[in-house]
Amino acid sequence: MVNRNGYFQLVIKADGTYIRLIPGRSDGKALEFNDIVNYFSKIQLYDYDVSALARAINASKDKMVEIKLTPAIFSQVNELLDVSISPDRMYVEGYFYPPVVGGKMLSKNDILDILRRAGVKYGVIEEIIDAYLINPIYNEMITLARGLKPIEGKDAEIIYYFNTDKTLKPKEKEDGTVDFHQLDMISSINKGDLLAVLEPEVYGKPGIDVTGNAIPPRKVIKKVLKHSRDIHLSEDGLKMYSDVSGHVDLVNGKVFVSNTYEVLADVDSSTGDIEYEGNVTVKGNVRAGYSIKAKGDIIVDGVVEGARLYATGQIVLKRGMQGMNKGIMEAEGNILSKFFENAVVKSGGYVSTEAILHSKVSARGDIIVGGKKGFITGGEITSGTSITVKTAGSTMGTFTQLEVGINPQKVEQYREVQKRIAAIDADLDKLLPIIETYKRKIGQGEKLSPEKLEYIRLATNNCIQLRTEYKECQNKFDMLRVEIGNSDGGWIKVENVAYPGVKIVISNVNYHVKTETHYSKFIRDRADIKVVGL
Question: Pairing relation of β-strands 280-282 and 261-263?
Fold first, then answer.
């Protein structure tokens, strides 16, 4: 038998039980102490000289070594097979232990029977078993069975033939002002235009694991073309066309087309509140106490007073909003305005403006306060990503809060792994002293009951599993720690000056500006906020 790996074999003699350590080739795997100890645990051999065994393993790297383990005449042990099924039950590995000298080798039927008793019903690789029987290989995991992976399908996909990207930002002129005439954000269409095409889902095929259980493919996502009125589909339901000329928008997966509703003067008592399925354009002002609700975009050429504006799309104010502490503006898309004063503003995209005074402004995306003025004075400004402003606060020390955040899921995972590591440490601290105590008793010649020997075996296996889990948790913990540590949780940039009275909040870390701070960027640095120059 040619074995490239180092392996061991028990030898039964008249004066006791010996172990023979056979070195492998230079390209093979060397003998490891834990492999031998695991084998002893399986055959319930506990009374041996651990130190002598360790010395013998070290000496067996270049030559065969044989030492006496115990004066006891150990029972005849045939070749053993330890079967391990992967957690996903997609493959089976076997670890063979040689018989004692003169012991019985496993036959093919023996191996197949062991696999059956382990629950393996599918995917046995008989060619590998046949090859092993011709040339047994010890001290190595051998794949004995493989499952069949499912063939994954394909999700349905909808291709839209109009602009669905609402993240486009307005161009800034040379003088620093925003060009509201070239926003390029509204998708115009003509009657008969193709709006969307549906590529249907493709179903996958199931697989089977080594225990014989079917593995269903991932469920594919089905889609249908959803639309409002003034739209029709082709006979096969795979193409979408517009019945009118106007504007098209995508809202929560549903396509809307409509003509734009235009108010030539002010929104006031002459118009009443406005609610429209498409875009709304106001050439004048929006007076206090009135409201506009649009399924598309809202564009106002004049000033919005203490009114309420809600848009499924974007809101563009070419002048601004004097909220009078009762004005509210909310858009699922972006919001662009000259200024906000005493108003509440909520954006599902980004916010772009030239000034914010005593307002509460929040956005999932960036908040950019630029242009000629570019100042924030008073109020609470919250962004999910970043805030850029020229001047924050005022010389009067007006309280102004600027806040950006991070993804809380990463922090939660980090804390859960940290707790698990502590729990494993506590379990090991309890188990290890008990195992060492029993081993010391065995070394001193004390005979233990079968129940206690079984307990030692289970405790040893438990320790091995805990150490494996500990290593996995530690790797995940280190990865999350680096990821969170490297994440700045967003940033706040002040291109001119931040005055005392400004409060900076990044990922729940607070920083109070106490002296005038110029040309600075505020970032999170671990448990602190760091101020760096621009």
Answer: parallel
For residue 1, the number of C-alpha atoms closer than 13 Å in the C-beta half-sphere is 16
By DSSP bridging, strand 315-317 and strand 303-304 are unpaired
First to last CA, the chain: 72
Please give the angle made by the CA atoms of 115, 121 and 124, to the nearest 5 degrees. 65
CA 13 – CA 17 distance, rounded (Å) = 6
Contact 360, 341 (CB under 8 A): no
The number of residues in the chain equals: 534
* Distances 119 to 82, 132, 146, 211, 349 between C-alpha atoms, Å: 13, 21, 13, 6, 54
Distance CA(96)–CA(38), nearest Å, equals 12
Write down the pTM of the prediction. Answer: 0.48
Instruction: Tell me phi and psi for residue 139, to 5 degrees.
Output: 60, 40
Distance of CA 80 to the CA centre of its chain: 42
Among residues 416, 349, 327, 40, the alpha carbon closest in space to that of 339 is found at 327
- Mention every residue, 6+ apart, whose C-beta is less than 8 A from residue 430: none
pLDDT value of residue 485: 56
Amino acid at 296: G
Return d(Cα 261, Cα 243) in angstroms, integer. 18
Classify residue 128 as left (phi > 0), alpha (psi -120 to 50) or beta: alpha
pLDDT at 181: 42
How does pLDDT run across 451-488, given as a tens digit for each residue?
888 888 888 888 888 889 889 999 988 887 776 555 55
